[in-house]
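Look over this record as teaching material.
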Amino acid sequence: MTAVDLEWVPELPLWEAELLDEGQRLLRNITECVRGSVDIQSEIEPNPLCVYIKSSEGQMLYTNSAYERVFGGKMMSAGRLSMAYLNGALQKVAHDSDMLILRGSNYAFADHVGENASGRSMHLQTIKHSLLGVGHPKLAILGITQVLKFFDEQPHSSVRNLEEYWTAFRLLPERDQQCAVMISLGMKSKAIAEKLNVSDKTVDNRRDAILRSLGLSNPMEMACLLCRFQDNGFGQFGL
């Protein structure tokens, strides 16, 4: 593989549900590759999306040509730590979503921004799946990223910074903050309802209201955000 065409972008981005389905398909096929001792690279290489497989330490074990075109730059990514070459906002998203997988989540989804190898800002969607149970000692995380579009402006001009998110979070009612933390810890609505002495439906309604207030799309993004709060010293949530 060679790193070429840094402005490459798929012509027809997948809908979110289709991206999730593609992640499940690749997960099944890679599991079969491991169990059948089939070459994993041959499975991920033809995919038009940016596909990569990482170890639990963050080392890139496999990447396809699409990934290298967007993120690799002049050096191949395989064999390197992702944090050594990812730009700006991508480092934080990569770290937070990796931590969710390594702490036991089966998958993580993020709608986010980042920069390609030439520093151009992009709107991205990423799905990650856990490979910890496939029977290979090194494989930990399967990642699939699609480029939705390029921006001319820098990422921070189109995305709220962490301080703004923290202010919005602190403006939530105390019980909503508690609810957000419990959701991010992976607790089910029934368990949260019992803890707060409310109905399951109330928890679901409050969850949707919290996501709207914070400008987030799903509970996984909220968990990533709270991890960022914690990692940057805004608060401790036990994540």
